């Protein structure tokens, strides 16, 4: 019997890329991990270091440095390489450089014969996901940006604190739109144990004065608060990226808010943006189109207009 080994390549072996690799071996997601970086010695060092951790993991994973031409039979590629924002910049401000870096990565990968899934982490992730879709020629379901997946985890953490420590897994909540400052939260669809959060506010004196706009702002800004304290974020986004890959490999049909292509959903066309999606063996299998209030839809479209403005700066 011939067994197909699952392979994941990681392009960009800095703190985010190496955290993705460590999450992969921790959770026994695949049998092989290819570490790729313009700095080949860095890729080798990370591969060796992670290999030495495999001894103490439940299953064996082969980890090694590689080149783009070795990606032909890889199942999924995580791209983390990009331009980090400088002081005073937003994620969107890094688009020009990140788009050029992305082209230098995607073109040789496609020349290798790759036909798997791209998982995009590089910022601004929504526009980079669209850029990779254009560059690769692959179907839209195979190009997935991490989008608002980590923002949604941050939102649930904030709500958990407001709700006296209720487990985040018992809270149904997600952010939508840009993975950035303009993201929004569809409060009409946020619930705890099936009870609408807005109804909980009305019934609970401790929650009655809660400021929903402040929560959205805090959700969008907490990544920057981490950035200011430790220089970057990597554990949360790595976990989100691996969660997407697990849902593909195990056909979990899990609903994850990712950056996906919209073709008519929410009245939007030809844009990658953060929306809840069913993620399974075919990648993005369905965009979940929730029925938002008029105000929520306005906020969502406003966020998308921000993305479109920046998309135009690289010719889209």
Automatic annotation (TrEMBL):
One of its GO terms (cellular component) is cytoplasm. GO terms for biological process: glycolytic process; lactate metabolic process. Substrate binds at residues 91, 123-126, 151-154, 233. Residues 7-145 form the Lactate/malate dehydrogenase N-terminal domain. The active site is at 179 (proton acceptor). Keywords: Cytoplasm, NAD, Oxidoreductase. Its main location: cytoplasm. Pathway: Fermentation; pyruvate fermentation to lactate; (S)-lactate from pyruvate: step 1/1. Residues 148-312 form the Lactate/malate dehydrogenase C-terminal domain. The keyword Oxidoreductase applies. It catalyses: (S)-lactate + NAD(+) = pyruvate + NADH + H(+). Its EC number is 1.1.1.27. Pfam families: Ldh_1_C, Ldh_1_N. Belongs to the LDH/MDH superfamily. LDH family. Catalyzes the conversion of lactate to pyruvate. This is L-lactate dehydrogenase. The gene is ldh.
